[in-house]
């Protein structure tokens, strides 16, 4: 299964992780949450909500204060993510009628915190 960028999406005060990749069904250059094809058996976290999408809903509660979004994510081994980077993006999310239409398309990017999606954020900093 092709993989894309893993990102955290905050909706209605709840944080989710999703895997995004380009999908022309969402529009030219647009991203979609990756579908899990029928019969595929990817490794998924125990908090996966059962949708055929690479999405998790672990119950993280972000805090929003003075222009800062903080999401505390527990890991058994933080070493696996310390080399990673992240960025902040505000965008519209289109929900389609069919799970595989695709269900979730990222549309209308409003702002990228770094200005260039260079992933300057580092865990625990």
Describe the 3D structure.
It is a single chain. With 125 residues, this protein is mainly beta. The protein has strands at 5-11, 14-22, 31-33, 55-60, 63-65, 68-70, 89-95, 104-112. The strands form 2 sheets. Strands 1, 2, 3, 4, 7 and 8 form a 6-stranded antiparallel β-sheet that branches. It has a two-stranded antiparallel ribbon with strand order 5-6. A hairpin with a 2-residue loop joins strand 5 (63-65) and strand 6 (68-70). The chain is globular, with a radius of gyration of 15 Å.
Secondary structure layout plus pairing:
Blueprint: E1 5-11, E2 14-22, E3 31-33, E4 55-60, E5 63-65, E6 68-70, E7 89-95, E8 104-112
Antiparallel strand pairs: 1-2, 2-3, 2-4, 3-8, 5-6, 7-8
Order of helices and strands: EEEEEEEE
Strands, total number: 8
| Percent in helix | under 10%
* Outline type: globular
Brief summary:
Helix content is 0%, strand content 38%. By secondary structure, the chain is mostly beta strands. The relative contact order is 0.22.
Throw out a few tags for this protein.
125 residues; mainly beta; two-stranded antiparallel sheet; 38% strand; 0% helix; six-stranded antiparallel beta sheet
């Amino acid at each position: 299964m092709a993989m894309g960028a893993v990102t955290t999406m905050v909706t209605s005060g709840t944080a989710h992780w999703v895997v995004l990749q380009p999908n022309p069904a969402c529009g030219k250059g647009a991203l979609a949450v990756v579908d899990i094809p029928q019969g595929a058996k990817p490794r998924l976290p125990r908090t996966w909500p059962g949708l055929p999408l690479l999405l998790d809903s672990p119950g993280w509660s972000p805090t929003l204060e003075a222009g800062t979004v903080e999401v505390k994510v527990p890991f058994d081994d933080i070493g696996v993510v310390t080399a990673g980077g992240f960025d902040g993006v505000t965008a519209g999310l289109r929900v389609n009628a069919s799970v595989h239409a695709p269900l979730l398309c990222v549309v209308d990017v409003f702002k990228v915190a770094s200005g260039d999606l260079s992933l300057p954020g580092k865990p625990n900093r």
